[in-house]
Each structure stands twice: as structure tokens, then as C-alpha cells.
Fold this sequence. Notes:
Blueprint: H1 4-17, E1 29-33, E2 36-43, E3 47-50, E4 65-68, E5 72-73, E6 76-81, E7 92-96, E8 103-104, E9 117-119, E10 126-127, E11 140-143, E12 149-150, E13 163-166, E14 172-173, E15 186-188, E16 195-196, E17 209-211, H2 223-226, E18 233-235, E19 239-240
Amino acid sequence: MKSAKVWLQQLFLLALILGWSPFTHASTYTETVDGVDWTYYIVYDSEAWVGGGPWTPAVPRDTIGAIVIPSTLGGYLVRCIDAFAFRDCSGVTSVTIPGSVTSIGEHAFRGCSGLTSVTIPGSVTSIGQQAFCGCSGLTSVTIPDSVTSIERSTFAGCSCLTNVVISDGVTSIGQQVFDECSGLTSVTIPDTVTSIGYCAFAYCHGLKTLFAPASWESKYIDGSFWSDYASRTVGVQGAVQPSGSGGK
């Protein structure tokens, strides 16, 4: 007699063959706004989240140009950009996020290589890890005061990113947040930041000046901060020159 574990495995495989996925939301809806077909689902019977899981993007993947995310869909306020919502939508050039949105999910814009600008409103309080990873065309971004933590690899691989504004609300910068952002030349980190992850600025070969809070301890200014051990000048009420050389 087959064990319960074997039966469950077979049932799961059958479900996948029939097209069901644990990452696909049970009920998604579509609404056309300004010529764009939006996919969304309802959460808590009170709010809309754009997207429908890893294989169901918020808009068709061949969407081109600037898009404005609606503030309402199906009569519900749009509160969240779901994980993977715009993944690999390489034709999207700019995104405006409405003030109704409070959360941007993991990998939400990952691989949007054509994205050059994004407007993040002050209503957003959380941005998931790798949310903008691989957005190689993104040139500038402002993290609003409402966000307290920049999660792991949020902007990793954004090679054209030259300007980053980290607002005073941020207290934590995660691991590899700006990994391989080779276009960065200078960054100013506010006094509110008390934690920074390993390799946060790894392989940012263009980054020569970092203005950090005077309250920072010297442990942040070392090879683990940069990973590649390339020469850097770090302004902490003056200039500190890390030792070592090398690169990726």
C-alpha cells in the first residue's frame, strides 16, 4: 500500500499537469485601463493586488512604453504590486505607482531592462528583495521616507544607475543591495542608517565617494563593504581610504 507521502506527491504532479500551480492565485481578473490590460486579484475582500503570480504578469509582457498603475481596479484600491508582477517586461520604459500602493513585492520589476525611471510614492512602506534587480536601464531612484529597509539585492545589476536618493526613513540597507551598479559614482547615506549588509556596494567600480554618517563605526569601512577591495574614498566627516586592491 502506498504511503500518504507518495499519494500526495502524485496528486501534486497531476495538478501541475492539469495546469494548477501553488504560485498561481485562484481567481484573477482583467480590466482595461487607458488601453492597457491589467491582471489583478482581490485580497481580504477589500483591496486589489496587481499581478497573478510568477507566470501571470500584471500587464502583457510585450507592453511597450510608459505605464501608470491604476489606483483602483474592479472597484478596489490597488494596495500592492505582487511578486513578479512586471518581471521581464523589457519594453516598459517608465512606471508611475499611485499613492494607494503600500507594498512592492519581491522580484516585482526584475529584468525590466528597458525601465529608465520609476516613481515610488510616500505611501510605499516596503520593497521586497530583488524588486528592481537587473533593471539595467534604470538611471535614478528615490527611496521615500516611508521605507525603513532596503532589502537584499533590490537594485543589484542596475548598471546604469547613477543617482540614488536614500531618504531619512531608511534604517537598514541589506546585503548586495547595489551589487554591480557600476554606474554609481557617489552615494549619500543618511544618519538614520544603523545597519548595512555584506557586499552592499560590491563591484560598484564607478563608486569612488560615499558620504556616510559620522556615527558609523569603522567596521563598515572595509573590504566586506565593497567585496572587490578596489580603492575607494569614503567620507565620514572626512575621508577614509580602505586598503587593498583588486576587482571582479
